[in-house]
Amino acid sequence: MPVCPKCLKYFETARSLTFHRAQPRAACNVRDSWDMEIVSTTPANERNNHDVDDVPVASFPSDSGHAMDFDPGLAWEGNDNRRSLSPPISVPVDSLGRVLVTFPRAAEIFEGGETFLTRFELDPYSVCRRLVPFYPFANLDDWRVANFLLTSGLSMRALDEFLSLQATKNMPLSFWTAKDLRARAELLPSGPRWKFQIVPTTHSTKEPIQLYFRDALDCVEALFNHPFFEDKMDFTPFRLFTTAERVVRVFTEWMSSDGAWDMQSKIPEGGTVCGVILSSDKTNITNMCGGRVAHPLLISLANIKMKVRNKASSHAFLLLALMPIPQFIHPVPRMCSVLQERLFHQCLDIVLEPLKQAARFGRMMSDPVGNLRYCFTHLVSYIVDTPEARMLACVRGNTSPVTTAMYKDFGDPYRHPPRTATTTLAQLSSIECDVLDVDQYFAACEPFRLSSVSHPFWRDWLLAEPSEFLTPESLHEWHRQFWDHDVRWCKQALGAAELDFRFSIIPRITGIPHFSNGITKLKQVGGRVQRDVQRYIIVVIAGATDPDVIIAIRALMEFRYLSQATAITSTTRDKIRASLQEFHDHKDALIENGFRRGEKTKHVLKHWHIPKLELMQSVIPSVERVGSILQWSADTTEHAHIEVIKDPASTTNNHNYDSQICRCLDRYEKCRLFDTALALHGSTTESIPVPPVGQDADGNDSDTYDGDECRNVLDDIWTPKRKVTNFFDVAARLLAALPGSVPRPPRTFIAGSTAIRLNYDPSLKRIPIDTVAEQFGLPDLRGALGDYLNREGNVAQNFHTFGGQRRSPPDVHLPFKELDVWYKVRLQQKTYHDSSEITPTFTVHAHPPDRSLKYGRYDAAIMNIDDRWQWPSSGLQGHTVVQVRLIMCPAAPRGSNGINHFSSRFLMYAQRFDIVPQGNSSVERTTGLHVLKRATRASGSELGEIFPLDQLRSYAHIVPRFGRKADNRLTSDNCIHSSQSFFLNRYFDKDFFYATS
Fold it and tell me: What's the 3-state SS for 193-225?
């Protein structure tokens, strides 16, 4: 049972305890007892010690509803009213070795909580399930069929047709009609329930305003208590540093930000901050039948780690409400828009009121393992596009939603003062006009550039600050801006024909789209295509126009790539600021050259009235306040619209969409929760009665379960069915396999931070060396193999580098006569900022000429030539760029037993590229890219050597330097063969960009 940490009184429910602590005159009130000692059930030896110099003292917000000024310096003066802090005993680190400083005495746990299964057993039909675990279904097979049909999206008619088939009738099902099936589904335990309300309005509408919504606090608690997030949530704010000296700060999750730290300091000691994330955006339900539109409001928790929260399969974003889209009756169309904005804020007030109360008074909630926590629900982020951000900030068009900048200020190279909640509310209160007189009130708001929304939804939400919770959003603000402006500038600079031709002859990358027909005629371009174009745009425009224009576009590209890092250090933050400043220093060249033109008029524009350009100035402050910006992208929420709106809408009869969407989602959630509960009970493997909660199969009391086993079960349900193959795990299994059970050498192995994968069977098996040399155009192959064996020795597995002149003669005798040859090798790496995450694989081709490839296909790669340096942390230091010409393994002589030392290692023939110095820099000034040329011997032949394949570290994308005008004889197949000077394109992959920056 929940217990009050003040008076130690027991309560029946967590809600009762919350009300007890919120009583104004109670001795346990969180405000009146702020300076009293809080009794925690957490043992003293389990509490962390923390550093005095990094821990601010908690202070409670004022009654005005806005945060009190926080001065960290006050914490270190000898004030008796402040809590004393003890120095740390040791320096804690996170899983990546970074120094971790956590907030003291935060997120304390109490007894009396409930687990997911405990709540599941509170269902009125739980008694029936003790006899029949799958009630209201008969058995496991019956449930599996029902689950498939209920979540298939089939209509009632289609379900009836399926159930009427003779083959289906032969199955021992407990239901025979779609109506019976859905009636049984209604008996399953439910998640947060849907509500319906008619919203009153002061102005006439064509139809009554209907609002479908769920209790916001129930949705938060459903996420907070879900077992899938057990080891995927943060409860305590922390600060990360790269070293123990705490010089370089690292911003990652929201909990690592200053905003989370400050929120924790403004709630009672031992409380837990639950960061609320909201998102809303209109989405099309149908393109036919009148083009119906829905306006979903989604909710999630910032406590959930971003790599989990941003995966659609995690279902971390719940549909909270379907916001009404009314049609007001007013003679002025602009006033109809004003009334719609007012109604939106009014509906948000209704839906979010429980969260506002919990932010002020707190709420006892159970975490995924059943611990009770005293939670405060503060708004952390509201993910929206720019027009909706203005609506939420209550400002008009051509006005920044987060700063005081007007449209004339959008091109300024600095950030204007933030538009705070206090400022906006003061401006609204100064307007002496009847709010119901929309026309007059709208005119009175004009001097302040306000939208005439008189009651913003955030006005009474504790610590809600629009300039902070309207976080930068990469999909609309960066990628869309790139397509609408940067690409248009490039089109003006090069011409559409030249731009398209250059894109068409870019060397292909396996797994990444290639724009064979260019980009200027693309239709319905989405975020994925915009990101793919960004991979090539800099190498495409290099050398084709004014250097200042290229610098400006490249600076914006660096800004986007750096800002999308999942971990941003204070050093990276300075680079982001410098990149944006570099754009402003060179942007005038775009106007001077006439490249900035209107989309319709085609006239040169001599201003920078671009709202998204001004929003870039808020990235640096937002990194400090909310952590990595990438986690607030609308990519996840846009994808969630498919799951929570479009898919359910496709099962309707095209009438009353909102109510049918809610019913469909309710069925889906019931099936998912029931499947999760059965899996945790173990009932999916054998049909046995489910023991009462708190008792194991042997009758012994048990409040815990096997964490690893449950996590595996939950991962099977809540993670994607089609997963990226982890070659690191494959290599580890092969290494541990019994001798003789796998081929040697293993086809998958780890080299440094790279997993290397070859096909099981070679492309060419047992081919004579001279035949291979002729087929791949390598006349010195035999001599190179001789030099390799001389360097390798008899047994040693040495590290190789490029040598001098060829020492072995062309007809040198070798201990083998044949080679096994592979046409490609796949490389997989860990992400640059998180070594626990893997990247998609890149394929390095070494394909000889044939009918389809006149010159063959030989890709570039990064190869390690100095084992003192490790990729990717060292960048190109200790590494070189090579062209892989041949992938092979010497074949053991026929009749020999076992593996000889020369056939125990995969080899490659690689030709080196040299980096051409650019004055005092290693990169070209305008593009920021390395310039490469083919390395040659004194004789003029290309410098190539044999290397172990395990010296490969990464795929590399090289692109010819096209110059002012690209040669029209080039194609994507011959451009590498026909060129001598290249760019090392570091923009083809973000992790490669971070490694080489």
Answer: CEEEEEECCCCCECCCEEEEEECHHHHHHHHHC
Which residue reads 């190869």 in tokens? 863
On whether the CB atoms of residues 889 and 788 are closer than 8 A, the answer is: no
- The contacts of residue 239 (CB under 8 Å, 6+ apart) are 54, 100, 101, 102, 249, 256, 261
Token pair 């629009």 is at which residue?
A: 466
Edge-to-edge, what's the strand order for the sheet holding 568-569?
Answer: 99-102, 238-241, 249-251, 568-569
Query: Dihedral angle at the C-alpha atoms of 877, 878, 882, 885, nearest 10 degrees?
Result: -160
Q: Kindly report the length of the chain.
A: 997
Pair of tokens at residue 585: 């220093």
Q: Report the 10 Å Cβ neighbour count for 488.
A: 16
Angle at 231 between CA 225 and CA 233, to 5 degrees: 65
Q: Which of 843, 938, 919 shows the shortest CA–CA distance to 887?
A: 843
Tokens of 73: 């310096």
Closest CA to 402 of 637, 619, 582, 631: 619
Q: At 529, is the secondary structure helix, strand, or coil?
A: helix
Cβ proximity of 527 and 475 under 8 Å: yes
Pairing state of beta strands 754-757 and 824-829?
antiparallel
Scanning 3-86, the segments in alpha helix (DSSP H) are 14-22
Q: Cis ω on the peptide bond leading into residue 227 (within 30° of 0)? A: no
Q: What is the pTM of this model?
A: 0.86
Asked whether the beta carbons of 814 and 788 are under 8 A apart, the reply is no
Tell me if residue 31 falls in helix, strand or coil. coil
Question: Integer distance in angstroms from the first to the last C-alpha of the chain?
Answer: 55
Q: How far apart are CA 554 and CA 749, in angstroms?
A: 37
pLDDT digits (tens, 9 = 90+) for 638-689: 999 999 999 898 888 888 889 999 999 999 999 999 988 888 877 444 433 3
User: Which residues have CB under 8 Å from 762's CB, separation 6+?
Assistant: 820, 821, 822, 889
Structure confidence by residue, pLDDT tens digits, 840-887:
999 999 999 999 999 999 999 999 999 899 999 999 999 999 999 999
**859, 846 Cβ separation under 8 angstroms:** yes
Element containing residue 767 per DSSP (H, E) = strand 764-768
Give yes or no for a contact between 944 and 992, defined as CB atoms under 8 angstroms apart.
no
**Average pLDDT across the chain, whole number:** 86
Contact 14, 5 (CB under 8 A): no
